[in-house]
Amino acid sequence: MEESTSREKILKKVRAALINKSRLDPTDVDFDSHIYHAPEEPLELVFAQQFSDIGGQFVFCENPTDCSENLAALVHDLKLTKIWCGEELIQAIAQQAKIALTTHSQDLVQAEVCITGCEFLVARTGTVVVSSRQGAGRRAPVFPNIHIVIAWTSQLVFQMKDALKGIRVRYPNGIPSLVSAITGPSRTADIEKTLVQGAHGPKEIFVFMIDDMPMG
Question: Where residue 199 sits, what CATH number does that domain have?
Fold first, then answer.
């Protein structure tokens, strides 16, 4: 009897809620205000901390020459071979470091390392945003075991919403068919609840960030 009475009370509340419509106007929603407060630290520092916390390797470079030298040191220390790069600007930085590259798309499947640029870097989550409009296309950030990203401080934004706005501005005639957010090395725990890295993409990801912002 008590169970029936409790059930009736709940049903009455449901009916009342359906009859009395909400006074809130769903069209008057503020989509522009930031959910998260902007950090006091520089975005490059926030990105470096977040990116490192999720397993990424971060290298800050004062200029393109510094980037070439650091890139050459990494290739030498890790004895990296079969390095693929499909973007001309990134190729120039790698060639300055005298790194042997393969640039043909058919060689990508056999590559151990790919070097690409990016669209934006999201500081709050340490995320690298890439798209199919880049010279590397859709496959480069997926096949090789190691992904090296060359980026500039001017590509830093605070949150993902800012990156998506930037992509719409950059491609006014139509956004890329693929926009991908890379947050750390590929990993999954779906296999017997054991963490496996490299399941869906690279096991390691490096970001070389070149400072191109004016002093002051």
Answer: 3.40.50.10420
* 142 domain-assigned: yes
Number of domains in the chain: 1
What's the per-residue H, E or C state across the chain? CHHHHHHHHHHHHHHHHHHCCCCCCCCCCCCCCCCCCCCCCCHHHHHHHHHHHCCCEEEEECCHHHHHHHHHHHHHHHCCCCEEECCHHHHHHHHHCCCCCECCHHHHHHCCEEEECCCEEECCCCEEEEECCCCCCCCCCCCCCEEEEEEEHHHEECCHHHHHHHHHHHCCCCCCCCEEEECCCCEECCCCCCCEECCCCCCEEEEEEECCCCCC
* Model confidence pLDDT, tens digit, residues 52-72: 999 999 999 999 999 999 999
Asked if residue 147 is part of any domain, the answer here is yes
* Residue 15 belongs to a domain: no
pLDDT score, position 198: 46
pTM of this prediction? 0.78
Across the range 89-99, mean pLDDT stands at: 92
